[in-house]
């Protein structure tokens, strides 16, 4: 992950609603969440949700796929792990430590 990707991802997460959406997607795991479920859980309008989802997708932190008539959004766990890895790459003066462990190894 390069610095431009990191800045884009951190910029996307530096907004309360987008952070809440991303956390909801992480909790949902591989099955993902529909926009209707997210709007209900977060108490935001579909228009607001759509705007924030677009920003998360643009930053590579979320993706979507069609399931029949519905869109299902999922967190991009590899992108999240890449971001965390970038932020902690040189902790502990380069010595192995718990912080450098991959956060989610069971996720796709």
TrEMBL record:
Keywords: DNA-binding, Transcription, Transcription regulation. Transmembrane segments: none annotated. Residues 1-95 form the HTH arsR-type domain. Pfam families: HTH_20 (PF12840). CDD domains: HTH_ARSR (cd00090). InterPro entries: ArsR-like_HTH (IPR011991), HTH_ArsR_DNA-bd_dom (IPR001845), Metal_resp_trans_reg (IPR051011), WH-like_DNA-bd_sf (IPR036388), WH_DNA-bd_sf (IPR036390). One of its GO terms (molecular function) is DNA binding. This is DNA-binding transcriptional ArsR family regulator. It comes from Hydrogenophaga laconesensis. The lineage of its organism: Bacteria, Pseudomonadati, Pseudomonadota, Betaproteobacteria, Burkholderiales.
């Amino acid at each position: 992950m390069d610095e431009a990707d990191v800045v884009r991802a951190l910029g996307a997460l530096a907004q309360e609603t987008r952070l809440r959406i991303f956390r909801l997607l992480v909790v949902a795991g591989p099955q993902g969440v529909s926009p209707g479920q997210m709007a209900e859980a977060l108490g935001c309008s579909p228009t607001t949700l759509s705007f924030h989802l677009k920003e998360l997708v643009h930053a590579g932190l979320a993706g979507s796929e069609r399931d029949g008539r519905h869109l299902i959004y999922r967190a991009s766990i590899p992108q999240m792990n890449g971001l965390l890895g970038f932020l902690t790459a040189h902790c502990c003066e380069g010595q192995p430590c718990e912080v450098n462990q991959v956060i989610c190894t069971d996720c796709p």
